[in-house]
Amino acid sequence: MKAKPAAAPRPSRARARARSTSIAAFVVLAALVPTTASASGTQEVEAELPYVCALPSGQLPATVRVAAEFPARAEVGEAFTPSGVTTTVELPEEAVADLAGRGAAEVRAATRLDVGVAQNAATARASWRGGAEPVALPESGPLTLVTRGDVPSVAGRGDGDLTFSAGSLAIDLTLAAADGTAPGTATADSGSVSDSSSGSDSGSGSLTVDCTLAEDAPGQGLLATVPVGTGTGAPSGSASPSGPAGTSGAPDDGQPDGRGDRQPERQSERSPKVLENTPGTAPDRDDVPPCRYDEQHPPTDVSLNAYVTGYANVKKLKGAAYLPPSCVLIEQGVPVPGPPDPDYLIFDTVSYANFHYQERRQTPPFEATFLSFDFAPVKATMVLEQTDTMRIDSRMKMSMTDFSTTTDTYVRAPLVLHVLDLEVNGTPLDVGSECRTETSLVSEDPDPANFPGDHLVLYGRGELLIGQPATGYLLLSGGVLAGEATIPAFTGCGTDGEDLDRLLTASVSGPGNLIKQVQGQTCAIAAPVFPSPTNEGQCTEDLQPYEIPVAEH
């Protein structure tokens, strides 16, 4: 992330009230931005690459643009995560005709881009996943799909340029008719994401499009180069061949290439390390609030509890605020049969949840700090407060052919942002006790007819293949939930007749703020699983969640 430095304030002989207002504006702009790398420490990359995609009508050309931010360089063993990753796919007009011919009026896309990571002669592979909101099929011209999502962290094992190259691309499309139902059905959920594990057409409401990098792709799909250690190579986001010879977008899973007289074991040790989760350390249990049921909140047979943590972007400030581990009490619903589908067995589950902190439905207070001009520290203390119960809608789809399952989960949370304190260089600035957003954080809901009103929407998808561990998000085991929100205008900020609402609103409020939340493994109160030599712990002895998750950028 990059933050633009503010201009240094000039001395002024204005009245004290004007000075306090200027300080307030300074705090608003700075307090929500954590300390980040300077602008010179990052490189912005945007690569445009030709692909060939397999659609029902045949092999069609497509254009894929990948945008991201990488560090300008890294140390040996230092893990980093490419940020702001956006994948834009432009499918030709023939593809639109294919989808329209299947009865689709709109599509929701999820992308899986295979990215080769190479250093010297050693390689590894990472999967960059992204998701998007539904888009209508254009009446003419190409179809443009823009997805955003999470990417793994990477660490170089030695000195030398670390290169990232695009490889194969899979596009999972969920199709919806004009009335919002899946083509050929009357009751399918237009907000669900279909099963894509088969890599092909998996039902009338879904389609997976497999794409390969064109042979004439510049730089064999090169996206970026990050110098590591004492190497002198310069960072490059251009699609020109600056990586090691033989590097391509389809590496060999981190194994050495075996060319010449290289020693495979030593090369494997130097292969770039791909981490599925952003590196970090879980807080000590003493540093997180308790998360247990009590006399005021007695558990039931379906009670769960879990910790959640994450980051929330403030787009206007090009920064993010860290949300510390917070306790959530969950009442799990009973699965009921979903809409009929000849290819899937479908079950829907509705659960409900509340934050639980000191008998209040809110997160613990969290601080965001910033060191402005290298000398003036500012700090804001905030909480997220519920205005109503959170609703969790999950749809599980089991394929009748290979018994693979996908589970799509939407969390709808009415949450206002409450600013408790602001400080400049240790001096408090009084914002009053009622400084908060006018309404809940607002997301575009995929089903507004059934879920009106202002609320945040977070989405997660879990996949389970027979004989393999589950991946993605599931309510019981946790995982990553993500969404995008508009921060509303602020109200009630300021004391002694000084109105700070407009300053906060102008500096912070607005659309396009990404939120990424990580939920840990739940503890099932009625059937707790304690740590043992044969089981991973799910509950502590006093029935708190055993796992404290780590936030991911």
Can you walk me through this structure?
There is one protein chain. The strands form 5 sheets. Strands 14, 15, 16, 17, 20, 21, 25, 26, 27, 29 and 30 form an 11-stranded antiparallel beta sheet that branches. The protein is mainly β and 553 residues long. It is 7% helix and 42% strand. α1 (16-31) runs parallel beside α4. It contains 4 helices and 30 strands.
Task: Report, as a whole number of angstroms, the end-to-end distance.
Answer: 10 Å
Average predicted local confidence, pLDDT? 78
Shape: globular
Q: Helices and strands: which structural class? A: mainly beta
Instruction: Count every beta strand, where a strand is a DSSP E run of 2 or more residues.
Output: 30
Q: Compute the number of helices.
A: 4
Unreliable spans are 1-40, 185-204, 232-269, 370-376
Helicity level: under 10%
Give the amount of beta strand, in percent. Answer: 35-45%
Radius of gyration: 25 Å
**How would a textbook summarize the main sheet?**
11 strands, antiparallel
